[in-house]
Amino acid sequence: MSRIAHAGHPIKSPIDDDSVRRLLEHGLPRGDERVLDLGCGGGEWLLRALTTHPKVHAAGVDISEEALEQARQEADRLGVRDRLELHQLAADSFSSPEPFDLVLSVGAAHAFGGLLPTLEAARKHLAPGGRVLIGDGIWERPPTPEAVEMLGDFADLATTVEQVVAAGWTPVHGHASTRQELDDYEWANWGSLAAWALDHPADPDSSEVLENAALRRTEWLRGYRGTFGFLCLILRRTAD
Ligand SMILES: C[S@@+](CC[C@H](N)C(=O)[O-])C[C@H]1O[C@@H](n2cnc3c(N)ncnc32)[C@H](O)[C@@H]1O
Q1: What DSSP element (H or E) covers 118?
Q2: Mutate to test the pocket of ligand 1, among 62, 103, 106 (most ligand atoms within 8 A of CB)
Q3: Does the beta carbon of 20 sit less than 6 angstroms from any atom of ligand 1?
Q4: Does the C-beta of 12 come closer than 6 Å to ligand 1?
Q5: With a 6 A CB cut-off, is 41 part of the ligand 1 pocket?
Q6: Whole-prediction pTM value?
Q7: 15-58 confidence digits (pLDDT tens)
Q8: For 192-216, how does the pLDDT look when each residue is reduced to its tens digit (9 = 90+)?
Q9: Cβ of 3: how many Cβ atoms within 10 Å?
Q10: DSSP type of residue 109
Q11: Cα(182)–Cα(160) distance, rounded to whole angstroms?
Q12: Domains and CATH numbers, the chain
């Protein structure tokens, strides 16, 4: 279901292509960086960094073999496979002899137990003077207990940035997803699932998929639309 739901939105976070491009530009000021993505999924951030920056080298870590296989196939198709290494591992058990100039982790903070532990993990891989590109949820309005139950607990924009600064990081660029980006992502997910079910009425999973799409759409519209937001930050260490 996840593969179908994300087919029309290869970045598995509520960020549009232009925002992704601008965030990568801020994360890759030289253009020859070593980049690590913790929780890379289908590798979409890395593939975009590699195709737009011919001197970048990248490593991606994810637990999903299916997502990594998709990243491999896309990297082959785009002719960047020789600059991409992929590791099927829990992100907190990855280690590398060489540090990275940009460490990315977008929409995968649950793998480390939240935003600040993710930053602590990213820091261990960071070269001196390096940058982190982190993406995680924020609350745009106080959440209901049901929204917290569904999505996990976050803080508002100002509090999130203050927490990050208190942990020793300086934001040098940021992007809070717009209502359009947030809505597009939800429609891409639950709309694609519903469309697949309608297009495959004879498939034994079709009615379950259609029910699931309706349930998730309702959870979004009644539960967290207008409450859940998404923040990406480019961070540098304030002092090492
Ligand atoms: C919402 S997706 C984000 C993927 C990608 N960063 C993007 O923005 O397109 C979250 C990813 O985290 C991965 N993940 C979850 N737990 C993980 C863990 N413990 N270690 C590594 N990856 C993990 C999932 O397999 C999934 O690919």
Answers
A1: helix 115-124
A2: 62
A3: no
A4: yes
A5: yes
A6: 0.95
A7: 999 999 999 999 999 999 999 999 999 999 999 999 999 999 99
A8: 999 999 999 999 999 999 999 999 9
A9: 12
A10: G
A11: 18
A12: 16-143+151-178+229-237 (3.40.50.150)
